[in-house]
Every structure is written in C-alpha cells, then in structure tokens.
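Quick one: structure for this chain?
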Amino acid sequence: MSKNFFKIQKSNLSNCFTKDYLLKIIISSLFIFSTNSFALAEPKSVEFLNETKLAKSFTDDFQIGLSYLDKGENEQAIVYLSRFIKTNSQNASAYYNRGIAYLNLKKYETAIGDFSTAIDLDENYSNAYINRGLAYYLLENHELAIKNYTKAIQLNPEAAIAYNNRGWAYKALGKVELSNADFAKNKELVEKNKTPAPIPTPNPTPIPRKDDVPNVSNTDPNAVKWTPVVEMNNQIFPSFFLATATQPVIESTVSGVIGDAQGKIGMYFVNSVPNTKIKLAIEIDSILKYQEFEATLSEQNKFYQIYPKLVWNWDALKRQKKATPANATFTLFINGKMVEKKTLVVRIRSINEAVYAYSYQLDENRWANTSSLFAAYVNEDHEWIDQILKEALQSKLVDSFIGYQGKPEQVINQVFAIWYVLQKRGFKYSSITNTSGSGTTDKVFSQYVRLFEESINASQANCVDGTVLIASILKKIGIKVGLILIPGHCFLVFDATGNGDWRGVETTMMGNVDFDKFPDTESKIKASVQGFLDAVASGNKTFAESLVKINEGNPQYKFVDVDKARKSGIFPIAW
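Got it. Here's what it folds into:
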C-alpha cells in the first residue's frame, strides 16, 4: 500500500514554543514599536519606550525554522532548529519539529532520535509517539510502529490518526481483523468530529436534495400534497437576511429545485400531474408583504422544492430588537385556482442574534455552516469610528492611520493606539452572551452580538462584541482582520503585514487595566502596553492551537476572514 496513506501528526501545542509546522503565522507576544510614531509630550517618552522592551525581533531561530518547515525547505529548517536547540536543549517541541524535517527528508533513524528526545523531555507527547511510529513503519519495523501508535492512543484516545496509521501497520503484518477494527475506529472518530457541537461542518453544506417523496404533511391523501417551509427551525433571523441582502439569486440547477438555491422560505410540493402551473403567495406579518411566485412543474409524481426570492421590509428587520412570534401565511394556487392556505407560527429573532449553524429540514443530520455571518457585525462604515480614531490621534501614540503604507511596526502602533483609547474609555469584559430567548435549539445555534454603538454606549463587551468592535475600527483604517470561533469563545486576529502574517488578540483582556489606579499619562500608557502584550501573547497561543484544529478540518473551529466574507456578499448590518 502506498505510504501516502499515512499522515504526519502536527505539533503538540501544549509545550512552550509549540507551533504546528503548517502554521502560516509568526507566533510572537512582543512587537516592534517605532520610537518615531510612539511619542509622548514628556521628554522621557523615548526612554519610557525602551523600558517597555517592545523592540524584540520576531525572527528567532525557532520561528525561522518553522517558517522553512512550512515552505518545505527541510534542510534550512534543520539548520535553524538545531541552532535553537543549542541554547534551548530542554525544549521538546524543537526536537519534535526537527524530527518532522528529518522525516520529510526520509532520514528515518535520525527522525526517530529526535522524536525519542522529545518524548524523554515530555513523556505525554502523544504526537511524538505517532510520528515515531510512522518512522518505524517506513523502516518496515511494523511491531515497533504498532507499539508507538498504541502508546499514543493510550495518551489520547481521540487521536484518529493513530488508529489510521496503526491500521496500516496491522495490515502489513497480515492482521486483517485488527486492521479493520482500527480503520473503523478512525472513521468513527472522524465522523464524530464532524458533529456540530456547537460550531458545525467546516464549510457550508449544500442543501440536501431528494428525488424520493418525503412525508409531506397532509391529512387528506387525495388532496394536493404540499407543506410550507421555514428553515432554521421555523425561526427568522433578521441579521441573516440583512447581511446577505445583496447576494445575487442563485438559480438552482438541481432537478426538482425551483427558485433561489440558497432560499430559506418556501414549500415542498408533490406534483401529481405534468405541466402544473403553481403560484405560491407568502406573507409574514410586518416583515414580509404579500408576494407571489409562479412556476410550471413539468414532471408528474415529482417532489419539488420551491424557494422564491423574497423582498423584505428591511426597516422592520432592523428594528427587531426582541424575539417575537409572527404568522407566516402561505397560499397555494394551482392552474389559476386557490387551493389551500396554511399558516405557520414562526419566531422572529432579535437583530442581535447571529445564527452560525442550523440543520436542514429535509435531513436533520446535514448542517449548514453560517458562521461567516459574524462578519456582518464588523461595521467599518459606522460613523462613530471617526471619533475613536480622533481620540487615538490625540493620544500622540500615532501621527496618522495609514494601514499598511508604512513599516510593519507602524501597523502594530495603530492597533495599540486603538486598544489604548478603548481602555481609556473604560471598556470592561461582560460575560453576558445571549438573551433569555436565545434562538439556540437542538437544530439551530445562535449567538447574541452587540452592534457597534451598543458596545460603545455600554462600555462593555463579551468576547464576540469586543472582537467585532475592534475589527470594525481596524478594517476602517485598512488593516485586514479575522474572527476565530472556537467552542464557547471568539477572539480577534489581524494581519500585521498585509501578507497573511496573522496575530491573535484576546479582546476580553481589555478591561484588565484600571486607569484610575495610575497617576499620569505615562504610567497609564505603560500599563496599557503591558496589557496589550499580555492580550497578544494569550491570543497568539490560542490562535496557534486553534489554527491546527482548523487546518485539520475540526468542525468546532472556524476562521472568518472578513475580507473574504465581504467578497462573498456579506456586508455590515447598518442600524
């Protein structure tokens, strides 16, 4: 069997300096600040800057080694990782990553040596056991390979890769039953990881289409078989429709699907005779005026899904601040005659609720991932941002906001200046994440998010609020931003160079500094700098761990690139 079926396990992120060799970022908690742009009125400003020790270089030997490893330049990676090991001989992750480089170069014995050293330094380093097992397998020492995979499984029973690789080792020894059992376990774990809990599949899942006739609600078997449909568990999320308002209608090319392929409201219809002319009228209390959609259904005994493109009362959606019930009325006409009217009681959610996953009504085991809609709460067009930028300029921390037009350190200065102003305004972390009427059910996951002005007025924000708030300001000045969604949490990343050099920021730490405790501007800025560094250190660590999960396709982790969301047609919710 081809050795390409085997997988190299990624870095263990539980160790100091641990970073996956695939990560396309430079993880650092210290940044270069320019003394030219970081200037205070007091004569001691430059001296104070030096005391903060912010001028540490990004490029230590370990990080350079990982960068080369990422690009597949294994020899160069070994040079820099070896140099790092000379002064950091107790760092298990350095040996581990150098072992990967040797493994890529097919120097299996040397790789085994490095993985063994990593294990000696950290006996619970399950990934090192996995890759040492792979090296033994490639040397055709299948018994030792199995021993290492088994140890990795003991340390991490959820390690699907270990079962996969051990399965191939068993197969090489002719132990078919054991091999099949491991392959089955690997498949089970992979499928388990695809379960949305709470964030669903890593990419939007196409609406499931069926040619067979489902159990369509109708009490009279001789009557027309049809049923109204409101996806998202009979809930309407204004934020979803506002954010996607300008997306073009995608006419479905799937047989049996009529209208908007991405539609959420419509009907299922079983066509009893060929060339049936139908008209579907829909009305939803105050948010959707009476609208009609017509189509000719050509095939007999065909199950159709019909999703009209709807024109909403946008002002009514924007005003929706509390969850309320509403009547959704569906009227069906066949060949010009009104056949039946049906009413569903739906629940209109608050504009603050962002739906990030829902199961399809036709197939509850299939999930749509709508987490990119969080980008709609990033509002770079908000008129209040100019005041925040004005206050930042008045702080003298920066002379202007120029995005990426200056040096890399000037980008960091701009981010810090905004951080400082928000701290000066007294922003605090709030653990309130949703309302008592949350739209989250067993079929829908949603999150309460404050709009920009709400966070500014309240001077408090939860993890999502703070992330979209700062992201809004950074995007306004031309700095690329992203939102990292992980189970139970969200944090900010920004591109430090404009070339994919992403840095994490733990926005919930903004309120950790109490400016009232410091007597003058200099001491406040110094405290803010340290708080910013702590937030970046924490954000970078979590980002590194999360990005490994994202690269592995773990469904509970998501990177929302705001620029990409804009290109896909998701725009800010204006309120």
